[in-house]
Amino acid sequence: MSIHEECGVFGIFSDKPVNAAKIACQGLYALQHRGQESCGIVVCKDRIFTSHKDTGLVKEVFTPSVLSYFPEASMAVAHTRYSTTGSASRNNCQPLEVNHQKGRMALAHNGNLSNASKLRSQLELSGAIFHTSSDTEIIAYMITRERLHTDSIENALSKAMEKLDGAYSLILMSPQKIICARDPHGFRPLCYGRTKDGTYIIASETCALTAAGAEPVRDIEPGEILIFSGNGIVSRREHCGKKTARTCIFEYIYFARADSVIDGISVHDARIRAGQILAEVHPVNADAVIGVPDSGLYATLGYSQKSKIPYEMGLIKNEYIGRTFIEPANRTDRVRLKLSAVKEVVKDKRIVLVDDSIVRGTTVKRIIDILREAGASEIHMRVSSPPFLHPCYYGTDIDSDDHLIAAHHTIQEIQTMIGADSLGYLPSERLSDLRCSSQYCSACFTSEYPTEIPNETYRNRFENPFPLIQK
C-alpha cells in the first residue's frame, strides 16, 4: 500500500480568450499522479462560470465531447483529487463553486487543515450548513465570511489565512481575478509560469507548467498571495516569514513527479541522491539492483551508481490495469496482476530491491514473494525514506499510526515479516542531504510537528494487516 497525497491544482489567466479547458486538461494530465479519484475544471468567460466535475481519471471525465462544451475563456481553475479528508463522492469533487452576496468564486485546494475540525465546529454552531465532507468547504466559508466585511476577495483571503492552520496551496477564481496562495509553512508546492503568448499558468508542480507550454517563472513563496488581474500581477507578503518554511519532504521522496522542481530543488536529483545515500549506509554484496516501478526507480539508479552493482529491470509493471479494472479477489492477486518478475534477470541472483517507503508491509511482502518464486537467491530490501512512524495531518491519507508497520515493529521484525534477507532504511538524519536545506517537514518520521496536533481527525483508510507482537 502506497501513501497518497491529496491533490493537484491548476489555474489559467490570460488577457484574451484561449481554449482554457483544453489547456487545463493538459495540466491535469500532468498532475494525475497527485490524485486519481476525481477531477474538475471551471472556466470563466464574461463573468460567467462553466464547469464540469466527476469521479474518475482525467481521460474518463474530460472526453473530447465534454471539452467541446466549454467556451473559450480568459480564466480557468482545475483540480485532480485523491481524498484524504472526505470521501471520494462526487459531492467532494473540486473546484468548489460558491455563490455569495458579493459575487461568486471557484476554489481548488491542495493539502489539509490541521484545525479543520475546530473551524468546522465553530462554523456549524454559527449556522453554517456543509454540503461536503472536505475541508476545502471550510476554507471557502472562511473566505466568503470575510468577504462580507472587506473590499476585495484578496483582502478576504488574507483575513481568512489568519485563522487557517496546516497545509493549503490554493487557486481561487473570481469573475475578474485568479488568486493563488500558499500557507505560511509552504507544506505543499505551488508555482507559476508564462507561455509564449503571455498566458499565465499556476500549478502544483512545474511538470504541469511544461505540459501547458509555459516556462516556469518561480515558486509561490510560503505565506504569499499572488493576484493575477487586468492590472497585472500583484504579490502580497503580509503572511510571509511569520512561520518557518516546512515543505513536505515526501514531495521529494514520492509525491511529486520526477521531472518537477520544487522550491529550487530537482525532484529527480533528490531521489537519485536518496539511493546513493542508501548504498553508503546499507551496502551489501549483490548481483543486481532492482526498483519497484515506478516510485522506486530513481533511488534504484542512485543505489546502483554508488554501489557499482548493475541496475536491472527485474520487475515489469502492467501499464494497462486502470482504476476501472475489475478488482481481484485478494491483494495478492492484485499485486500479481500489476507486477511480474523477469526470471532471466533474477534467477539465482542476489537482489537489492529498492522502494520509496514501507507503509503496511503487505505489498512489499508480496513483491518479495514474486521474486523468490522467480528464483532469486537473496533479497535485500532498501527503502529510500526513514521508517514511517507517525501520522500526517498536512495532506496525506494517514492520520493514525494504528496500521503503520514501523510504528509497532522493529526493523528486524519487519524484515522477518516481509521475508527479506536484510532491510535498510534511509536515516532520518540524512534527509537534509536530499534538499541541501533544513527547511522541510519530516514529522511523519520524527514526530516534530510544525503546527499544533489536532485533537480530532476523521480519516481511516487502512485495515490492520498484521497482529501486533506482544512485548
Outline the fold blueprint.
Elements: E1 7-18, H1 20-30, E2 38-45, E3 48-55, H2 58-61, H3 64-67, E4 73-81, E5 96-100, E6 103-110, H4 116-125, H5 136-147, H6 153-161, E7 169-173, E8 178-182, E9 191-195, E10 200-203, H7 206-211, E11 214-219, E12 225-229, E13 232-236, E14 247-248, H8 250-255, E15 261-262, E16 265-266, H9 267-281, E17 288-291, H10 297-307, E18 315-317, H11 331-338, E19 339-341, H12 343-346, E20 350-355, H13 362-373, E21 378-383, H14 405-408, H15 411-418, E22 422-425, H16 432-435, E23 440-441, H17 443-446
Parallel strand pairs: 14-23, 17-20, 20-21, 21-22
Antiparallel strand pairs: 1-4, 1-10, 2-3, 2-4, 5-6, 6-7, 7-8, 8-12, 9-10, 9-11, 12-13, 15-16, 18-19
Helix pairs in contact: 5-6, 9-10, 11-13
Task: Please characterize this protein's 3D structure.
By secondary structure, the chain is α+β, with helices and mostly antiparallel strands. 28% of the residues lie in helices and 25% in strands. It folds into 2 domains: 7-245, Aminohydrolase, N-terminal nucleophile (Ntn) domain (Glutamine Phosphoribosylpyrophosphate, subunit 1, domain 1, 4-Layer Sandwich), CATH 3.60.20.10; 268-319 and 327-446, Rossmann fold (3-Layer(aba) Sandwich), CATH 3.40.50.2020. The chain has 17 helices and 23 strands. The strands form 6 sheets. Strands 3-2-4-1-10-9-11 form a 7-stranded antiparallel β-sheet. A 6-stranded antiparallel β-sheet has the order 5-6-7-8-12-13, covered by helices on one side. It has a 4-stranded parallel β-sheet with strand order 17-20-21-22, with helices on both faces. β15 and β16 (265-266) form a beta hairpin. α11 (331-338) packs across α13 (362-373). The longest helix is centred in the middle third of the chain and has 15 residues, at 267-281.
